[in-house]
Amino acid sequence: MRYDELMETAEKKMKEQGIFERWSLYGAETGYTRITNNEFFKTIGLKLRTIDSTSADTHAVLFGQKLSTPIIAGAMSNPGIKEMPAPLQCWAKGMKEAGSMMGVGITSADAFAEVMKIGVPTYRISKPFKDRQKVVGEMKEAEKLGAVAVGTDIDFGLGNKVGYKPFYTNEMAPFSCEELTELRKETKLPFIVKGILHEDDAEKALKIGADAIVLSNHRAMVLDYCVHPLEVLPRIREVAGKKITILVDGGFMLGSNVLKALALGADGVLVGQAILCGAVANEAQGVTDMITEMTGQLQRAMMLTGCPDLNSIEEFILHKRNYVL
Ligand SMILES: Cc1cc2nc3c(=O)[nH]c(=O)nc-3n(C[C@H](O)[C@H](O)[C@H](O)COP(=O)(O)O)c2cc1C
User: Fold this and answer.
1) How many angstroms is it from 304 CA to the middle of ligand 1?
2) d(Cα 239, Cα 73) in Å, to the nearest integer?
3) Is 255 close to ligand 1, i.e. is its CB under 6 Å away?
4) Pocket lining: 87 vs ligand 1, CB cutoff 6 Å
5) Active site annotation includes 228
6) Is residue 191 part of a domain?
7) Which of 20, 39, 76 to mutate to test the pocket of ligand 1 (most atoms within 8 A of CB)?
8) Model pTM?
9) What tens digit of pLDDT does each residue of 171-229 get?
10) Closest Cα partner for 160 from 82, 77, 53, 94?
11) Which domain holds residue 202?
């Protein structure tokens, strides 16, 4: 399916299934972070630069894996949608076909093992469970089953909120720097810290030996009035230097916006909602189509801004606006 067909079909089906509100208009408390995730991209324009432009190569290397695209899955868990049995496997198949990478978040050991059988490069992000041994156990299991990277999110220490309703409050606790240092020592795999939005946390992630950080406001479901990752990305790249892998997420539904993230210093972009929409529209094939369409948009935008490959994308193709229409 083409991009517009995917989006229209997903919206129609979500409304029919009564899940549109829950899965499209969510956000902690007032939901303003969600609005920012959708709207912030409008404040950045792309400058056409076409003379001598020929082709654009979207291939990316993340965690040692050569991928067709820098658009990879966020850390995903089962959304509990009745019409979507075995969602993680469906998404993993779709991401494999698209030449991308799968991410797995909170899930059972069995469901994770099923994803690993599909044979798509997969990373695992655990949660700040109060039971720290559970985090270590999930990391070790992932390593044993052939994950390409492991890590944890750090933003979920107080759980999350859908509107004013809290979830996971009692099961989680924020990590200390010492605890993260110990956790990092438990694996030889690249170690990811997800949920960084302040340069202080980026510096701490470097200190504990993280190989990658994910700038994320966790789908707007943790902190109301939270910044968008692109607002803080340039400062964090400056502090973190070139060596660490920086991934970002938050409302990326279009290749043009992925280009903005890459131009501001990201190595790759994570998507959750886009995968969900693709799968609602047409199962695994819908996921493949969604990633392929977004990658096509990225490639076209790269050609139109004179960027032949991911390494040549720089901030000077962007124009920061002081207005939004
Ligand atoms: C169905 C679904 C389940 C998710 N489960 C997790 C999870 O278990 N752990 C986690 O860190 N993030 C989880 N996320 C968040 C994603 O990893 C990612 O941060 C987010 O989806 C990016 O924003 P976007 O949905 O606007 O693309 C989930 C997202 C979706 C859509």
Assistant:
1) 31
2) 26
3) no
4) no
5) no
6) yes
7) 76
8) 0.98
9) 999 999 999 999 999 999 999 999 999 999 999 999 999 999 999 999 999 999 999 99
10) 77
11) 3-44+64-302
